[in-house]
Automatic annotation (TrEMBL):
Species of origin: Streptomyces marokkonensis
Phylogenetic lineage: Bacteria, Bacillati, Actinomycetota, Actinomycetes, Kitasatosporales
Record keywords: ATP-binding, Nucleotide-binding, Transport
Family annotation (InterPro entries): AAA+_ATPase, ABC_transporter-like_ATP-bd, ABC_transporter-like_CS, ABC_transpr_LolD-like, MacB-like_ATP-bd, P-loop_NTPase
Protein's UniProt name: ABC transporter ATP-binding protein
GO terms for MF: ATP binding
PROSITE patterns for this protein: ABC_TRANSPORTER_1 (PS00211), ABC_TRANSPORTER_2 (PS50893)
Length: 256
């Protein structure tokens, strides 16, 4: 099995047909290795969310393959893909999307119920512990801060022990301090303090400060890969983004 938790191979996404057809992503070849935190960055409309949704199996590519935890998603039926997505991926959005009438614990248990399992309390508590909210299990969302609600959303995404956690602008609605707290939670998932099983996180962000929390930043421009940075600093990320915004900035379209 490759060291990639998820890999996109010659992936493209097109919308429309005939004369109105547009390719919004690809072809893209990129892997996200196990136990890593990767940020995906690029100008608005460059295809970041499309890449994330295809990688997570929320959207189907027009061509190419998505290999998730060793399984080619594109070879699966819709039902099989949904089943695998529910167990092998977790997804966190900018909006926390918690159900207001349910407690934190009940919200976190939802993916297990959707997968047809009776949620074991210990697993739900473990997920809440991972995000530092074990003591708020009985709280409803309106009694929690924005940062706490987003951490519940992360716990909900983690409860099935996914191979990859995808996050689309997870700090977008948070202030600087709470955003940083969330990023520390995400880093801890990957770098496994206390000997927990390391995870893999892929997140989309617009913010160089957020991207600098990642081990690696992958850049997109006009739907194509436009290079990457390892051990990024906010300054280096911001410089790359500025360069990408310039007319004629080069896109690589190369393997990452
Ligand atoms: N359902 C759709 N039909 C047609 N075009 C679409 C559809 N969804 C997305 N697009 C187009 O695909 C391109 C990539 O969109 P995407 O949301 O992936 O970009 P993004 O980099 O995440 O942008 P942003 O940073 O603004 O969120 C955009 O030009 C968008 O208009």
């Amino acid at each position: 099995m490759s060291d990639d938790a998820v890999r996109l191979e010659a992936l493209t996404k097109r919308y429309g047909s005939g004369r109105t057809e547009v390719t919004v992503l690809g072809p893209v070849d990129v892997g996200f290795s196990r136990s890593s935190l990767t940020a995906v960055m690029g100008p608005s409309g460059s295809g970041k969310s499309t890449l994330l949704q295809c990688a997570a199996g929320l959207d189907g590519p027009s061509s190419g393959r998505v290999v998730l935890d060793g399984t080619d998603l594109t070879s699966l039926s819709e039902t099989e893909r949904t089943r695998l997505r529910r167990t092998a991926t977790g997804f966190v959005f900018q909006a926390y999307n918690l159900l207001p009438s349910l407690t934190a614990e009940q919200n976190v248990a939802l993916p297990l119920r959707l997968a047809g399992r009776r949620p074991p309390r210990a697993e739900v508590r473990r997920a809440l512990e991972q995000v530092g909210l074990a003591d708020r299990a009985g709280s409803r969302p309106h009694h929690l801060s924005g940062g706490q609600q987003q951490r519940v959303a992360v716990a909900r995404a983690l409860v099935t022990r996914p191979a990859v956690l995808f996050a689309d602008e997870p700090t977008g609605a948070l202030d600087l301090t709470t955003g940083r707290e969330l990023l520390h939670v995400l880093r801890d998932l990957v770098h496994s303090p206390g000997g927990r099983k390391p995870g893999t996180v892929v997140m989309v962000t617009h913010d160089p400060q957020v991207a600098a929390f990642a081990d690696r930043v992958v850049f997109l421009a006009d739907g194509l890969l436009a290079g990457e940075l390892r051990s990024p600093t906010p300054q280096a990320v911001a410089e790359r983004m500025t360069a990408l915004g310039r007319p004629g900035a080069e896109t690589a379209g190369a393997r990452c």
